[in-house]
Specification:
There is one protein chain. The chain is an alpha+beta fold and about 160 residues long. Helices cover about 15% and strands about 30% of the residues. The protein has helices spanning about 30-40, 140-145, 145-160; strands spanning about 5-10, 15-20, 25-30, 45-50, 55, 60-65, 75, 85-90, 95-100, 115. A hairpin with a 6-residue loop joins strand 1 (about 5-10) and strand 2 (about 15-20). It starts with 5 loop residues before the first strand and ends with a helix.
Length: about 160
Amino acid sequence: MADFPIDGGCDCRAVRYRIESAPLFVHCCHCRWCQRESGSAFALNAMIESDRVTDLGKAPELVDTPSASGAGQIIARCPTCRVALWSHYAGAGSRVKFVRVGTLDDPDLLPPDIHIFTSSKQPWVVLPAGTPAVPAYYDRNDYWPQASLARRRAMLASTP
């Protein structure tokens, strides 16, 4: 487990942030939408309560973007270099940030807890043994640690 806090930011270092605690869960998403959006084989996102992420630099630009669900997402991008730093999805809204793990100063600190939408993963991607992998999405009660489930309940209860 990583020691927190951990810092991250964009390529030009104008937007900087600090993750103050462990994320709720880390997804490696292999859906075609994430492949297209990231320009890569998957997206690696650390889900964390927004109030556990501290802004250290310039504010990101929030870009309203379509999503596979049809509900859309808001992507936080550096206004200078345009790197995507995190997203807010419709389900949790601004309460949760899906931080792009690749924007951490040390992305090795947050490996995936689960691989999702593996039914559409690139055939050359080899998934590691020992990490859960599911063909689509999943029931969080089956995979999340109890502490993360409790944090999620507390977050949902404390925000309108």
